[in-house]
Amino acid sequence: MRAFYGKAMADEKIGWIFTDVAGLDLEAHIPVIASFWATNLLGAMSYRGGAFGVHGRLHQKADGGLQKEHFERWLVLWCQTVDEMFDGPIAAAAKVHGLRVANAFYGRLQMQPAGS
Questions:
Q1: Using CA atoms, how far apart are residues 43 and 20, in angstroms rounded to an integer?
Q2: For the chain, which residues make up each domain, given as ranges?
Q3: Could you give the CA distance from residue 106 to residue 108 in angstroms, rounded to a whole number?
Q4: pTM to 2 decimals?
Q5: What phi, psi does 115 have (nearest 5°)?
Q6: Contacts with 24 (C-beta within 8 Å, 6 or more apart), sequence order
Q7: Which residues have CB under 8 Å from 97's CB, separation 6+?
């Protein structure tokens, strides 16, 4: 998670969303997002949040909202990080689930007003 967020937060296309819009506290976020992925990939059942709501609020707060290219860039960085660090069926599932999450969130955001 740290490797991915290090890339995402420094990225010229999406870094501003994490730093300027979300004001992401990485140390607080890591346990939450690790729990999300452990639940989705490993069946840990430890995640008790609603991941979409946070992204809906970011969409409303970000100038122009979260756009398709933001989700595409997130997915590229996600897949690159997974490929660099892992191999095997769970790594493949992480990439597939990342695609599903990106598509689902983007689709749902199209029904909400974007930030101005």
A1: 33
A2: 2-43+56-109
A3: 6
A4: 0.93
A5: -65, 160
A6: 5, 9, 18
A7: 40, 41
> Tell me: the pLDDT tens digits for 56-93?
999 999 999 999 999 999 999 999 999 999 999 999 99
3-state DSSP percent of the chain in helix, strand and coil, to 5:
70, 0, 25
Q: Which residue has the tokens 């809906």?
A: 56
Tokens standing for residue 12: 């010229």
Of the candidate CATH numbers 2.170.150.20, 2.40.10.10, 1.10.490.10, 3.20.20.20, the domain formed by 2-43+56-109 belongs to: 1.10.490.10
Length of the chain: 116
